[in-house]
User: Fold these one by one.
Assistant:
Number 1:
Amino acid sequence: MAETKGRYTTGLHELGDGCFAYLQPDGGWGWSNAGLVVGDGAALLVDTLFDLRLTQRMLEAMSPVTTTAPIATLVNTHANGDHCYGNSLVEQAEIIATSKAAHEMTEVPPALLAGLMKADGDVGELFRSFFGDFEFDGIDVRLPTRTFDGRLDIEVGGRVVELIEVGPAHTAGDALAYVPDSRTIFTGDILFIGGTPIVWAGPLSNWVAACDLMLGLDVDTVVPGHGPVTDKSGVAEVRDYLAFVDEAASARQAAGIDAWEAARDIAREIGANPEFQSWGEAGRIAVNVDTVYRSHDPAHVSANVVEQFRRMAELEA
Ligand SMILES: [Zn+2]
């Protein structure tokens, strides 16, 4: 089993069989993980980090390995900035993402976040409370140079990494990176461990199906997009949460209850549920309930992004 089990410290962790996880506790907003798969003379990087300083620090930590096995391929698991804003520092690598993720990457450029962080009044204050640890100025995101839909097998120094598209779920174009010869999977934000999953895109049923797919793979070591390294038990917990939220929100929508009222109500239930009550970022239920409502009713009008962050902050206050 992975040596990171029960240990969760910042930096590069060797998982065995030429696989590494770069972890950033505590896994909250923007504190994402990345992965490295090392073959003979070449390596594959799974995701960059939220800003250039953090990504540079990670690449330096990887350099004892990547000096002899340079990063030939970078996979972005999805379009969120905490998984791709450092792309420009991985020079010369081919960058691969699903075509939906590649498209979505153009929609939230770092300059937009940089602007929100500097906004006057309570909007700036709100976004700084979520993302104040990161530096979004001066980032020019290198976009994917190769896209795929469905599945794609990548050869890296004589071994195979299987890319599996499972979105839309967390975002429009989520993918997993599975390394069969080491029974390891890098899940991107299809898994949050110790924190609450946030379903920006949905439907939740797609994400539950992604969990079922992972549970069916020959896998011992599971590296989430946020949180400590886990195994299939971590996948099952996320599946339980999503199934619970889908059912709880669907029932309230059928009863004609407003989405925000439903979210506050379900938040109270989660706070009393021993399986989920210790998870961070519990306020994400506001977005998750909204996504359930939208998936059943395309005419449902979601709260705008500022209001969504206000609601999440309020639920966690
Ligand atoms: Zn993330």
Number 2:
Amino acid sequence: MATVNTVLGPISTDELGPTLIHEHLILATPGGECDALAVPYNREAFAGSCVEALEKAKAYGMRTMVDATPIDLGRDVELQKQVSERSGINIICATGLYMEAMGKPAYFKFRSQFGDATTEIYETFMKEITQGIGDTGVKAGVIKVATGQGEISAYEEIVLKAAARAQKETGIPIITHTEAGTMGPEQAALLISEGAAPERVVIGHIGGNANLQYHTSVLEQGVYIAFDRLGLDFVFPDNLRKACIIGLVGIGYADRIMLSHDYCGDLSVCWLDRPVELPDFATPVIANWSYAHVFKNIIPALKEAGVSDDKIDTMMVQNPRRLFS
Ligand SMILES: [Zn+2]
């Protein structure tokens, strides 16, 4: 029996059910610790808001989410445990590091002057995968990596190499962040050349463009792709994402596609530190963004366009199960 580590312990991959491959409970932008007016973190309040948001998706049959928050974006394993216990949703948490521009690259960049930072990052990932995160006892179930717009920086490259090495050794999947629909093919090629198994890699935020040639150049490398910002019309229009999903399913790629939202809770609640006030124009373009949007709006639209129940099941249930098996 294949098992996967969730924040509440290992479960059979058969128990994953409908899975959202890239979501967040909370996010903290590095630097919040420098804001004298940052609101102190209240885990209880955050947990309540996350449970409430997840219950709306659970009503549509959602069973599992991957919390794609890397180490340096405010990942809180105790919060993940509480939310999983209270909501009944399986949560798979990540080890990994974010892209250079928005993460916390300073530490390992500094250390790279004195030694082999790739190995040190690999050791960090391995500790969190095999022994657990801090003293929580929770083992990471995926490795998250990220690259910036139009390039893979030297720092990002060593993070990807460390991830590929940990993937190869432990078998656990890698999920990625791509920026503005760039570097997907390059990420896949680098990870594979460093020994990662393509069938254990998900290139994320693929719907940052509607370029089918870009999408297929990633798919041809044998990896999965994730249209995992559905509802974020703010970044790229859902209509074009839907057109790409329908087209790619139509030419036989249903067994390589996963759907998710990159949601991080009520923005006024789940972004840590000083509350974010959204500009007026943003509100209508993220009106549908939630953990439930794929189930409530996207799947019905795909069905309307002729995508079969079987293919929906492949994308929502079978692909995540295969990825973690
Ligand atoms: Zn994300």
